Amino acid sequence: MLKLSKRMRAVAAMVTPGNVLADIGTDHGYVPIALVQREKIPRAVAVDIKEGPLNRAKENIVQYGMQGYIETRLSDGVKAIEANEADSILIAGMGGELIIHILTEGESVCRSAKEIILQPQSEVRKVREYLRAHKYKIVDEDMIFEDGKYYPMMKAIPVEEDAFWANKKENIIIPCDIYGPLLLKNGNPVLRKFLVHQHRKLTFILQSLALQQETDSVKQRKMEVAQELLYNESAYTILGAIKNAGI
Question: Cα separations (Å) of 90 from 57, 65, 117?
């Protein structure tokens, strides 16, 4: 039985059992292989933009006897996926800007799926902003700490409207975009550690900037970091208050 890393196990756990999976940027093909092995999903399409990773995925699929269940396709994002072909679309292990590009370029395919599961390695706030602005509702979130890094991930479904955000002010929306509405609501223990880590990091940066000559660029940076620190501290308040906010 194929063993997954802690991060990949958490991502795989978000795939709804019984769904057909499209794994975008599959690399070694480990997630679809593990899910089919465990009979969580009936079949999958493993996609990558580069032939090298796709060939590695093919080799692993053959090694684990999954040829009848997992198909491989060379593709830029979801271009090789048909609308309504996949129930779950997984995009993990790449930068947030690239994830947004894939969602934007393949909007009709992504919105035809029952769920999209995302694990951005950067620009996480922008990814959540995109989901909120393009009528996706985050229905599950997790955060994993592995090999010295924090990995947030989320599952979202396409909706006509997400009424929760309608009457919320920026002091709620922005911290939710930065840290995750459901991570905050559920008091995720890894998020709590991340908040402490971020607070220490931002405080140190602010103290270092205070020792520098007060140029326009330093002044601007101090304002930006102070604002980030404010959002960080707001998240502590939201951790408790959001539980009664109806998410």
Answer: 15, 22, 5
Three-state SS at 47: strand
pTM of the predicted protein model: 0.92
**Are 230 and 213 in the same domain?**
yes
Distances (CA, A) of 167 to 52, 121, 163, 237, 239: 48, 30, 8, 18, 19
Tens-level pLDDT at each residue, the chain (247 residues): 899 999 999 999 999 999 999 999 998 999 999 999 999 999 999 999 999 999 999 999 999 999 999 999 999 999 999 999 999 999 999 999 999 999 999 999 999 999 999 999 999 999 999 999 999 999 999 999 999 999 999 999 999 988 888 888 888 899 999 999 999 989 999 999 999 999 999 999 999 999 999 999 999 999 999 999 999 999 988 876 655 544 4
Same-domain pairing of 167 and 154? no
**Structural domain of 228:** 162-247
